[in-house]
Amino acid sequence: MIELRDATVTAWAADDADGPGRRHDAARGRRAGHGHDRVVTLLEPTTLRLGERRVAVVGANGSGKSTLARMVNGLVLPSAGSVVVDGLDTVRDGAAVRRRVGFTFTDPDAQIVMPTPREDVALSLRRLDLPAAERDARALDVLARYGLGDRAHVPVHALSGGQKQLLALATVLATEPAVLVCDEPTTLLDLRWRRAVDALLDTLDVQLLLVTHDLDAARRADRVLVVDDGAVVADGEPATAVDHYVDLMTARAR
Questions:
Q1: If you ran DSSP here, which 8-state letter would residue 30 be given?
Q2: Where on the phi/psi map is residue 168: left (φ > 0), alpha (ψ -120 to 50), or beta?
């Protein structure tokens, strides 16, 4: 169970981002007079209980959807309120939360650190305190399971973008997280690899929080959150929530 309890995220920003001599109100990030810095609200106070197996988060670029997702494994900590995953608080129990919650980024190069796929998966398995030989054997099994068995010893830079995204997922899934957060995992992929990653995500037996611009993928979720201007503006059944988002974006395009 993922729980956000009045979770809010704010950040300092230089006032020149909004014009000289202006700043934002600390509570809501709106102009409040003159000053050298301003506080912007990246996510308004948000309360959610997410127990569904597959939850999709949609919204325009800069809407705050990635901020919300990154709070779930403690990459972003709440400025106020709290985020709790299966009873673990992301502030007080950060290490335990990260062991329970896996995270993949839009760009797999942001998280692949070793020269070959085998070494990258084996590195992630170090947290399980296994002997080196067992880590290597398990890494090969994981790569085979996710369609990368024949790429185990290939230099990472020789992999296609889709293969890198599968590797990033395999590296995270090797540690058997209870929750997986994917931040736009198919945005950089062509149609073939988008379908391959989507197919993999559809089969996973973990709770999935999927940030996506792919509205077809969102419609396959059990629940959809629509984030706009730092707030959850729709939350519910996928078809209704996605239609709300489409209407919102269509109105802004006029």
A1: -
A2: alpha
Q: Is 48 left (phi over 0), alpha (psi -120 to 50) or beta?
A: beta
Helical residues (DSSP H) of 125-182, grouped into ranges: 132-145, 161-173
Does residue 191 lie in a domain region? yes
Task: Compute the radius of gyration of the chain from its Cα atoms.
Answer: 20
- The alpha-helical segments, DSSP class H, found in 146-237 are 161-173, 191-203, 215-219
Three-class SS state of 210: strand
Please answer whether residues 183 and 70 qualify as being in contact, where contact means their C-beta atoms are separated by less than 8 angstroms. yes
Reduced to 3 states (helix: H, G, I; strand: E, B; else coil), residue 70 is: helix
CA dist., res. 195 & res. 94, Å (int): 33
Query: What is the end-to-end Cα distance of the chain in Å, rounded?
Result: 39
Are 3 and 86 in contact by the 8 Å Cβ rule? The answer is no
Q: Which of the four pLDDT bands, split at 50, 70 and 90, describes residue 25?
A: very low
- Asked whether the beta carbons of 215 and 56 are under 8 A apart, the reply is no
* Number of domains observed in the structure of the chain: 1
**37 in a domain, yes or no?**
no
Per-residue pLDDT, 16: 58
**What's the CATH code of the domain at 182?**
3.40.50.300
Please report whether residue 9 resides in a domain.
no
What's the rounded Cα separation, in Å, for the pair 240 and 151? Answer: 41
- Computed over every residue of the chain, the mean pLDDT equals 89
Over range 142-148, report the average pLDDT.
Answer: 92
Residue 242 falls inside a structural domain: yes
Q: Are 90 and 71 in contact (CB under 8 A)?
A: yes
Q: Which domain holds residue 149?
A: 48-253
The residue written with tokens 């308004």 in the block is 44
